[in-house]
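Schema walk-through. Below, the input block comes first and the output block second. Nothing else is stored per chain. Lengths vary across the set, and this one has 368 residues.
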Amino acid sequence: MKSKLIFTLILILSLSCFYESVTFSQDKKKKKSVKEVIKDVNKKEQTDTKQTDLKKIVEENVTDTNQKNAEDNSKSAAQKISHIIQTKHFYKFGSAMEEGVKVSETHFDNDGNVIEFSEYDSDGSILKKEKYSYDSNQKMTEHIQYNSDGEIERKEVFKYDGDQLKEYSVYSSEGELENKSIYKYENNILKEETLYNSDGEPEAKFVYSYKGDLLISKSKYTPEGALEEKLVINYHDGGKPSEEIYYDGEGSITKKIVYRLNSFGNLKEKIEFDGDGEQVAKTVYNYDTNNRLIEEAQFESDNNLIRKNSFTYNDLDLKTQSIEFDSDGKQVSKFLYHYDSAKRLIKAISLNLLEEPVFELRYNYESK
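--- output ---
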């Protein structure tokens, strides 16, 4: 498919709700999340311009490292990352304590796919665990979530026909089916999605329409065939969304999201309006001369600031600093990021208003 589909796939397969916002790519690789497996229907990945959290930064670096090793035959298998341990170290008298508390542990397969993620509390006990399984084509087949007692809370199962996702099922902690989605395609393009309840009865049908490679509408129908909701997407030249218009079954607008780009094609503003055309929220994005996101500000309907984040990068385009401000412009948090020679995040230091370190998160990479 054409690269333009990167910007429409975020809209295609929302399983939890009908409304879903589009995010814009900045041409950087990102490790796939669980929901993105569904977007793999058309074999595309995307990243967004929002602030990348620490977990995503780490997984992204691991993926890039493992992919690079896989492509370079001179690299040995031992250089691939097997798992990462994240620990939290508080500062005392200006220095970080060597003894830290385990925060999380992430395990990867040889292809850089996350196969297990565990999160711990301050006592070192597991808060939650997630496991992932993949087929020979590296497509996710199972995602299981466990509670602190090691009991299954939720299970997602993905079934494919070749490269196409054909069925997605969600099971409860008791192992009972909660819902299932079946997907139909024409010429390798998703055309229909039918959602079934736990009794196997259809709850809704989603119909997708395209203009060329671009998704231009998504319609939701009741089991009886009545239109319930509809999303219409318009685009800028170049294939990036310019607006999303949401309608109810009667044809009245319920919501509208407008996307404005700068001269370089980067997302400049995202503005949300209600059904009456009144502004509900706005997010403004600013970039440096290298097209790197350096500021993201969120505003209320009256254009009063809600929060703002600023970002700084080094010459390797790695994020070195992030600062969050509240609605009054006061600093809420500040992090400094440090990397190793392989461009992997190894340390994130939290600073207070006096620029004194409070704690740091360390990342220990284990190779196979």
